[in-house]
Design goal:
The protein is mostly beta strands. It is built from six helices and 28 strands. This is Cytochrome c domain-containing protein. It comes from Flavilitoribacter nigricans (strain ATCC 23147 / DSM 23189 / NBRC 102662 / NCIMB 1420 / SS-2) (Lewinella nigricans).
Length: 485
């Protein structure tokens, strides 16, 4: 399959291969990927890259493609950028480089920066690209059917054995829905701290639900301490009987509690052996939490279905380490999916400004946050100059600019033969569904699906073999119907 790559006209002279918005970093560089997608010779930006590193990175950050994801006060045309570099805007802290660079060097730096701008602009979908009617994708044609509407912020969803869907509303409600009529609210859910990114989050069934009726809910749990309301990520299990929960039991509670209201993580997924994997974000404390094993935050955890710790977890018996930790060095993982063939977990997580990641999760591995990252601070400054370090895993895929990934699933069954085995990832920021094309357990390409569908919060495979996608504010759940299978 040929991967279509966007291009940009640089300097009005040469059509250059656009550097990918993402990089399959375990196998090849972004430049390598761009070269494969086009027969045009790759432009040598080595001099411009060196100029950026020497004169621009100190203020704008090491990652040019992250820096250009911004609003351009003085414009972003070739002429606008040339003027800004040559003459500067001293009132805004931008010095003149008239005596530092020749005009030719400035033009080359402008061309280099334009590759990053075009990389961002590819996500600015046109209004007429709304996913209505029959949609022709790279490999098949599909239609979006509305499964549920008039929702607010559906965060997690799963399916009961009879086909009914369970879905959470971030505000604190759990619903059961058959696909017709009104969703039925389920009583007995935990009290949640519905502030910021917190609320009632993911929902998952026990693998043997048909016999034991256990369901699992992740949510933001609160407590009062020192006159402040603190919050954390917690997991409750309870038995579902009809439209009511009973025998509620908190089986996981991340420590420490925090006064922040973001980076809860909160995805739930069982593996083939019946272990429950769950994600916890760094809670906004990147300097203390993700790299230290003495807390639950910035980690993927693995527990038994009742909260007990598996004896073969990687840090069991290690002094000062939390025994439930399976992997660490994560920022805010809001996607967690089991590979249908290998059974291995894959996560995706939010980067800062740039550097969203997809990772294959391996036992005991360190995924680097915040020591290594392909992103920068939200204010454009740099918090690390490293994108790799010994003993830390490289992402299988990363996005610059950040797409704000949320929700994921692997495509299974026979309804979508051209997509079978691929990983689907939702985008909150750019409001589309990202198809990660998989071959031999590696991501080899991407396709943007359902542009302007809305802020994608979750994507799941239903027992009927259809893909279901939820979006928020306004809230809908869509069913993806193939037309040429």
């Amino acid at each position: 399959m040929k991967i279509s790559l966007p291009k940009t006209l640089l300097l009005g002279l040469t059509v250059l291969s656009l550097i990918f918005a993402c990089s399959n970093s375990k196998n090849m560089s972004a430049d390598d990927l761009a070269d494969q997608g086009d027969t045009m010779p790759a432009h040598d930006f080595s001099a411009a890259k060196a100029s950026y590193a020497d004169f621009c990175a100190g203020c704008h950050g090491e990652q040019m493609q992250a820096f250009v994801d911004r609003k351009w006060k003085y414009g972003k045309s070739d002429g606008d950028l040339f003027k800004a570099i040559k003459e500067g805007y001293t009132e805004d802290g931008m010095p003149s480089y008239d005596t530092t660079f020749t005009d030719e060097e400035i033009h080359e730096l402008v061309a280099y920066i334009q590759t990053g701008i075009a990389n961002v602009d590819q996500y600015e979908f046109e209004e007429e690209e709304k996913p209505v009617g029959d949609l022709v994708t790279e490999a098949m044609s599909v239609r979006l059917d509305t499964f549920a509407s008039d929702l607010k912020s559906p965060w997690g969803m799963t399916f009961l054995p009879g086909g009914d869907m369970l879905f959470t509303e971030k505000g604190g409600e759990l619903y059961r829905y058959s696909g017709s009529g009104e969703p039925q609210q389920i009583s007995g859910v935990p009290e949640v701290l519905a502030m910021g990114q917190g609320g009632l989050l993911d929902v998952e069934l026990h693998p043997d639900f048909a016999n034991n009726n256990w369901i699992y809910l992740s949510y933001s749990k609160s407590k009062e301490e020192g006159g402040e309301t603190l919050g954390t990520t917690a997991v409750m299990r309870a038995k579902l009987n009809g439209n009511a929960l009973s025998e509620q039991e908190v089986i996981f509670e991340a420590l420490p509690y925090s006064k922040t209201r973001h980076h809860y993580g909160s995805r739930l997924e069982f593996d083939p052996e019946g272990y429950l994997f769950l994600s916890v974000g760094d809670r906004g404390n990147r300097d203390q939490n993700p790299q230290n094993l003495d807390n639950h935050c910035g980690k993927i955890h693995r527990i038994h279905d009742d909260g007990r710790i598996p004896e073969d977890n990687p840090f069991v018996g290690q002094s000062g380490a939390i025994a439930s930790i399976y992997s660490y060095g994560h920022r805010n993982p809001q996607g967690l999916s089991r590979h249908p063939e290998t059974g291995v977990m894959w996560d995706h997580e939010h980067g800062p400004r740039g550097g969203d990641e997809v990772n294959m999760i391996e036992k005991g591995k360190n995924y680097g946050w915040p020591v290594i990252s392909y992103g920068i601070n939200y204010n454009g400054t740099t918090f690390t100059s490293k994108t790799e370090q010994a003993g830390m895993e490289q992402p299988d895929l990363y996005w610059v600019p950040s797409i704000a990934p949320c929700g994921s699933t692997f495509v299974t069954g026979d309804r979508y033969p051209a997509w079978k085995g691929d990983l689907l990832v939702g985008s909150l920021r750019f409001k589309y569904l990202n198809r990660c094309i998989m071959e031999d357990n590696k991501i080899v390409g991407e396709e943007k699906l359902f542009k302007n569908i809305g802020r994608v919060r979750a994507v799941e495979m239903g027992p009927d073999g259809y893909i279901y996608v939820s979006v928020e504010n306004p809230g809908f759940i869509f069913r993806v119907v193939p037309l040429n299978s």
